[in-house]
Amino acid sequence: MTGPSIVWFRDDLRLADNPALRAAVDRDEPVIALFVLDEESPGIRPLGGAAHWWLHHSLASLGERLRERGGNLILRRGPAAEVVPTVVSDAGATAVYWNRRYGGPEREIDAALKSGLRADGLEVQSFAANLLFEPWTVQTGAGTPFAVYTPFWRACLQSPTPRAPLPEPQKIRGATPHPPSDDLADWNLLPTSPDWAGGFREAWEPGEPAARARLREFLADDIADYDRARDEPAAGVTSALSPRLRWGEISPFTVWHETLAANADAGRFLSEIGWREFAWHTLFFHPDLATVNLRRRFDAFPWPDLDEEHLRAWQQGRTGIPLVDAGMKELWQSGAMHNRIRMVTASFLIKNLLIDWRLGEQWFWDTLVDADGASNAFNWQWVAGSGADASPYFRIFNPETQAAKFDTNGEYIARWAPEHRSGDAPDPIVDLKATRARALDAYDVVKNAN
Ligand code: FAD
Question: How many angstroms does the Cα of residue 271 sit away from the middle of ligand 1?
Fold first, then answer.
């Protein structure tokens, strides 16, 4: 059947190791690269502000790279179930390819489109590209999904080795004429009044070339110190790959193979990639992860009435607790936060302020450049104690002890919350010891619930 092939790009904004793109190029018909901004289909969660910023720049980069190779990126906005068939018929396309997604509503949309387009006579194929292990392939001996990380990752490591990454196509035969595209600027994904993204521009360069460069730099300069210093927020030895993986500017297969080629002793780093897999597998089996406690007995948690002033102080880094304020300001200014500090700030919100983890998850969703449907909710539930293989409920991070241990010379706090060094900081909004005791009492209710 002759006629153009459509590659529907989603969370895979790359040319290298992109099986859907590869299938279209190999088919030897004109290729139409399509991205649909769909924030309106039922169940689809609209992206946060930080994510919009990243997406804008990543799409600009992808469009340029496609054009350099002879292709085009067609941008459309609206419900995918309507937009994709419209582009198919406008273009006279005869094949549609995409890489799989794992969220519940996304899978429903994709499954309906697949059967609808196939019924119309099109060739439709989906590929594994964004996870090393497909969720339905990793199970316990009893045939159930894993609820504990260590045996999960052991089972992954005993599975067939992740495939080698596919090379990037050098030439793409674009369709002429091609279907009309929206103008990226008209999507208004960038902040204007006020422009809060100055710190983002300093911290990040979205796009596939920068993602590849960061992986190479990490493997050359930082991975040797990773085991020793990964918990120190000022050390800068972690990979900073999370937004790149979230947007699919680099594939986990590329990270896996390049890491092992560069450093055979990278088990610790790869096991963090394993946590990403575990989060996505958990979402696959629990599509409501961002809203429903995985351990349902946490539904009985006695959250007090929301103290909005406390929530705002936390969001704005005005809690008077140095490490918490530094973390929340790093997040606001750069769109990222070091993993240990994410745990400390989340624990402070849930346990010292007794504010529902879902409100923290929502704030991170709006402000993180790496916010994704799985890792964010998974980790919030982990800190709350309601999630998979979660931190026990009685584990309450003490931000002062954490600062003494992991920010020994105060460099991180001095960088992000200098007011705590100059004596201009607000007083603590709560007493750490008293609120710890209050949290333990509240958690007792859950412990005793059925
Ligand atoms: P590295 O230490 O270099 O790790 C390498 C990669 O492993 C990361 O890029 C990431 O893809 C993955 N990874 C590492 N730790 C975790 C983890 N605990 N869970 C899942 N994947 C992990 N990560 C996100 O990608 N998106 C989120 O929305 C997100 N929200 C979080 C919310 C909270 C409350 C907490 C405690 C953690 C959250 N994380 C999230 C996990 C983790 O903090 C980030 O992945 C990490 O800080 C990213 O920095 P890095 O790329 O330098 O990590």
Answer: 11
